[in-house]
Structure formats: structure tokens, C-alpha cells
Amino acid sequence: MATGADQAVGMSLVLFSLLLFSYYTVWVIVLPFVDGRHVLHRYFLPREYSVILPGVGAVLLLLCVGQRSCLLYLSVPDRLKLIWFWFCPISFTSALTMNSLSLFMQQQQVFKLPHVEIISE
């Protein structure tokens, strides 16, 4: 169960997202139909920024994800361990039951796995 501080942070993130979504919706959908001399236009940036700002945000997000991926890839000395955790389509517990994969991982010394025998049914 989340603590009170976690719930408060979560609720503030939800409220911030709702406020941002409402602001962007009014800016992009409602504002083009409002007269240009109306007082409402003072609270919004020009419409060109409605495309530029989300584009810049998406590029920054992709750069941060790419940087994190590269740093993680370079920080792991054994490349097999990284590939195992990121791209293996099976779960770690089901891999323990597969004797050949378990032995291979022990031989590569990626993980210290106990010897697992498969009982045929």
C-alpha cells in the first residue's frame, strides 16, 4: 500500500497532467474559433508553438531514453547479461526450468544458477 506522501505525489502528478491537457486542448482546439482580439488570447502562446513544444519534448524524451540505454549497455561488462535481461522473451523463472539454458548460463558465468533437472511428465 502506498504511503500518504506517495499518494500526494501521485495526485499532484495527475492534477498537473489534467491541467496541462486542458490548457493544450483549449489552446489547440478552442482558441482558433475565438476572435483574435479577445482577452483569452493573452494567456496563450502563438499557435506555432503548439506544434514546436510537443516536438521538442518528444525529441528530448527520445534523447534521454537513448542516453539511458547507451549508458546501461556500456556499463555492463558482460554483454550477454544485458541482452538476457532486455530481449529474452521468456521469464527468468521459466528459464530456470530449462536445463540446457541453465547450464549455458552457468558456463558463461553470467548467473550463479543452481542445477535444475527437468522431470518429464
TrEMBL record:
GO cellular component: dolichol-phosphate-mannose synthase complex; endoplasmic reticulum membrane
Compartments, as annotated in UniProt: Endoplasmic reticulum membrane
Biological process (GO), any one: dolichol phosphate mannose biosynthetic process
Pathway(s) it belongs to: Protein modification; protein glycosylation
The organism's place on the tree of life at top rank: Eukaryota
A single GO molecular function term of this UniProt record: enzyme regulator activity
Transmembrane segments: 12-34, 55-76, 82-104
Membrane topology: Multi-pass membrane protein
Biological function: Regulatory subunit of the dolichol-phosphate mannose (DPM) synthase complex; essential for the ER localization. Regulates the biosynthesis of dolichol phosphate-mannose. Regulatory subunit of the dolichol-phosphate mannose (DPM) synthase complex; essential for the ER localization and stable expression of DPM1. Part of the glycosylphosphatidylinositol-N-acetylglucosaminyltransferase (GPI-GnT) complex that catalyzes the transfer of N-acetylglucosamine from UDP-N-acetylglucosamine to phosphatidylinositol and participates in the first step of GPI biosynthesis. May act by regulating the GPI-GNT complex.
Protein name (Swiss-Prot/TrEMBL): Dolichol phosphate-mannose biosynthesis regulatory protein
